[in-house]
Design goal:
The chain is α/β, with parallel strands linked by helices. It has one domain: 3-Layer(aba) Sandwich (Rossmann fold), CATH 3.40.50. The chain has seven helices and nine strands, in the order βαβββαββαβαβααβα.
Length: 213
């Protein structure tokens, strides 16, 4: 007669995340990072966007506290001196940075936090927070990127040329990232769904990333 032995009783594994995930979104100017984040959240992606602090003036469609925290150069420099930033950089002659307290508070509340940074900022965060998830957003081709930058019409010809040179340098950093999201023209939902899929996959890791700040 066949008998089945009961398996040894062991403790049920802890399958909960220790804290929220830290998603670092980067890519060249004009790749559509803001649009991808906003659309992903609209479609239900569980991301908490922490606005970057910047010294540049707002564009016509930007809202203080929603898109960025806009401050003066003097105020930003005072925040640097007070060690308020998790990371900061001087980008196109303007300061940009993410406040440590804002990011920590969102993570401690169990939120998955997404930060939008340039490639330099992503490298800094990889060193400071090794468990961060680095996602690179890019158009499908160089021609598509150049077209997007020219159509924005927000810079002078000199500033645009500078952005294009910088974009070539940033594209070379792609291998340093964990994931890539290709943002095709007219397919924003698809790009947003790819970002959501990355977050959902990371939630299912057997060994979850544990972000410590």
């Amino acid at each position: 007669m066949l008998t089945l032995e009961n398996p040894p009783v062991t403790a049920w594994p802890d399958l909960s995340l220790a804290s929220g995930l830290l998603v670092v979104l980067s890519g060249p100017s004009g790749a559509g990072k803001d649009s991808v984040i906003a659309r992903a959240v609209q479609l239900g992606c569980p991301l908490c966007f922490v606005p970057t602090v910047t010294s540049r003036p707002p564009r016509p469609d930007e809202v203080n506290g929603r898109d960025y925290h806009f401050v003066t150069t003097e105020r930003f420099q005072a925040m640097i001196a007070a060690s308020e930033f998790l990371e900061w950089a001087l980008v196109y002659d303007d300061y940009k940075g993410n406040r440590r307290a804002d990011v920590k508070a969102a993570l401690d509340a169990g939120n998955h936090v997404v930060l939008r940074v340039d490639v330099q900022g992503a490298r800094t965060l990889r060193q400071l927070v090794p468990e961060a998830i680095l996602v690179f957003v890019t158009p499908p081709s160089w021609a598509a990127l150049e077209t997007r930058l020219r159509q924005r019409k927000t810079e002078t010809a000199t500033a645009l040329a500078h952005r294009l040179r910088k974009a070539r340098e940033e594209m070379a950093a792609l291998p340093e990232f964990d994931y890539v999201v290709i943002n095709q023209h007219g397919e924003l939902d698809a790009a947003a769904q790819r970002l959501t899929a990355i977050v959902r996959a990371e939630e299912c890791r057997v060994k979850p990333r544990r972000v410590m700040l």
